[in-house]
Specification:
single chain; alpha/beta; Nucleotidyltransferase, domain 5; two-stranded antiparallel sheet; 6 helices; 9 strands; 39% helix; 22% strand; DUF429 domain-containing protein
Amino acid sequence: MTLFLGYDPGGKGKNGVAAIQVVSGAPRVVDKATVRDATEALSWLESHSRTAVALGIDTLLAWSPMGGRACDNALRRKYGGNSIVAQNSLYSSMTLNGAIVAKRLGLPVYESHPKLLLRVSGENAIREAYQDAVANSGADHEGDAIVAAWCAAMGHNRNWTVDLFADFEDDIELVVPGARYPWFEGL
C-alpha cells in the first residue's frame, strides 16, 4: 500500500519522521521516529521511500523576497494566533534542514503547518494520531511529522484542492520545483 512520508525538522535530536498510509480516509501510522539531525532524517526517509509517493514537511518550501509570504498573511488574517511566523524570523534548523531534505529526497513535496492545522481543522482522525504519537514519545516531533505526512496525502490525492502557493499573488521562489502547500479550506 502507498506510503506518505512526513518530516518535522528541528534542532539536534529533535527531527521527527513518519510514514503513514491512508486507510478508509484515516491515517494509519506505519512507522515513526525522532532522529538526531537532517542526515539521519534523510536516511530514515530514504529507507521508506521505495513505496512512498509524497513527502510533507513542516517547513517553508517557498520563500518571498518581500520578507513575508502572501499565504502566511492570509492564514494570519483568517485564523489569528502567533504560530504563523514571518519567514525572516524563523530559526535555521527548520528552514535549512527542511529545504535540504526536500531537495535531496526527490519525491513530490508538500508544505504543512501541523500546529495550525490541528488548531483550526475539524479533522479528528489526524488529531488522534498526533495525540497518540505525543503521548508515546513525550514530545511533538513525531506527531508533527505524522501531520505533515497527512497534509502530503491530502494534497497529493487532491482531497484538499486549495494550494496556498498558487492561490495568492506573490513573488515566491519554490525551494523544490512543483512544491505545493495544500490546505483543507479556502482562505
